[in-house]
# Entry
Amino acid sequence: MLCGQEQSLSVNHCPESILVDGLLTEPAWSTAMLADEFQMNFPFDSLKAVSKTEVRMMYDEKYLYISAICHHRSNKDYVVQSLKRDFKFKENDAFGIFINAYNDETNGLYFGVNPFGVQSDGIVDNGGIKGVKPNWDGLWISEVNHSPNFWTVEIAIPFKTLRFKDQQKEWRINFARNDRTQNEISTWSPVPRAYKISTLSRTGTLKWGSAPMVPIGNVSVIPYFSVSTNRDFNNPSLSHKIKNTYGIDVKLAVNSSLNLDLTLNPDFSQVEVDQQVIDLQRFEIFFPEKRLLFLENSDLFSNIGNSRIRPFFSRRIGNTDNSPVPILFGARLSGNLDNNWRVGVMSIQTRSDNELDVRSKNYSVASIQRKMFNSSNLTGFFINRQSFQEFYSYQKDFNRIAGIEYDLRSKDSKWNGKAFYHHAFTPFKKTHTNAYSVKLRYRTTKATLFLGSDHAGKNFITETGFVPRLYHTNESTDSTIRVGYTHLRANGHYRFFAKKNSRIDFWGPTFHSDYFIGSEEKYQEHRNEITLLLRLKNTSSFEVVFVDGAPNLIFPFTLDGLKNSFPSGNYPNQQFSLVYNTGNRNRFYGSLEAGYGGVFLGDQLSFKTEWNYRCKHYAVFGLNMSHEELIHFPESYGNASFTLVGSKFEISFNRNLFFTTFVQYNTQSNNFNINSKFNWRFQPMSDLFLVYTENYTSQDLSVKNRALVLKMSYWIGGK
# Structure
């Protein structure tokens, strides 16, 4: 490919039927146009790929066909972490496809296959600059075949799985290859290493000989049935011998790109448990959403705001004080209206719970997005949380947020930024109820620079959101005092790349700077972090981190484990840490982190480590440990220590049969948890789960509760 010339590939109608077996024996494959000029993304983005990859495409009335021959020069085993679906592309030998069917470089789909035929798929949103969200499962077919010096993959993606405009003759597409044994990532359309390989502005053009037509009658029904039993030793009244639960999900394609999802009585018993952490912060810790109901096509909702100001956070739904609240039903309409407009509307209704003293609530969010210029967009949204009692709404029990946002992304993705204004509506708060932000990032291969400013008023209340900030509850008046703030932040890095024959990949400094200003425009606190990073070409890395901070206590605060609260005031301190990561190309891999420094009136000694052993691609055994020591505090405060030990055992019997066990021992929460899950995917998109959970006290290992759940879901239609 000539410098500056965009890659393009023509795809023509398949003259014969294709059997997806990975063998590529059909004569039609030899007539398809070849895409084989792959270029490195890593370790060098200026060289042609060493590991050769040959891709061809065809289509018929039902399927888009892709084949790839992935040449394998090494006599080493393939690097595959497990046989579970939705593997991480960068951590496995794999072939991947990025499809932007709307030709707008904004949203798309990803499909990937590893050398053992395991599938991975996901959503590419926001131009792909943040990677793939593996929270979407599509129905498609793939098979692989091995030869001494290469492996082949054959893929058939139903047009019912894809979302595209009828009779559109050009799509955006890119192919990617990860050869872990050669430590090389390459793409068909070149992607500089400063960018994610999913970046849609770096895709090539797919030209159709005859544009595909949108399929008719795309409806899928997924009923489920579960039976469970549990025993609560602390509260026997909450125990039940046998409980039957059933529900249904319906997926309906309103048109080629607009989807309607309906759910009745959803169940989340098979969702993987959160990995616990030792919490010594003053702010709430963010845990990502894992429930499929809220993950599919969620970017129109989850991308509202930023990492510190999220007006919509779906984990608030069906959850009160870390106790689950049943969801009655829900509906979501999302997708493209045309090349310029996208829409998302979701409404979820929860049950009332007398034991938790929780009313029935409705959570609704609506978002409409307009494409601006080449790759930017303008979004307006409205979020409503309303309480109900016997189908009548409580007029004074609601929380609403409205806002407008502008996302900036340049054509080449070097510049991206965001500006927004949000306003909260509550029954009793009328002032200081807004939030706004502006940020801008510039990136090149060697450097990035980010500047941003956030503001949250003291009465910007987001009951359906996530805004980590300071607050104080007055127990005598049962009132909550929140603190408004303005947050000035900056970060960036510079990389010095080594020569081709060096063992070093790059080294360089990274900085993060955060300054908080209080509601009276007075300095509140700051945190500055400087890191020196050294990364080797074998993907291992070393970090030296220095942090200078000065947390300001507006209200008294007690570190967990200490005897007394720290009075209001400013507490300057410094911390120092070392981090080593082996990378995960080898079967035995892990990381070490050790830190020491001041915290309020004492010191904190931290140690974290995680190690995993991969038994080929059949099993992964992992062990992690965190230990925190609070030492050198005045005698009236005392000292404290916390230990968290966790392990994960993951066995892949084949591509459709898995067993996973989590064990977590946490002295801070006085809990020892065991969670085991057996998963059998007995046919595409249809699963059988068996989940067993136990909780004990960490002090004497006395049992708290036990639960056993058997759940089956079955996919009907959509094929």
Q: What stands out?
A: The mean pLDDT is 89.
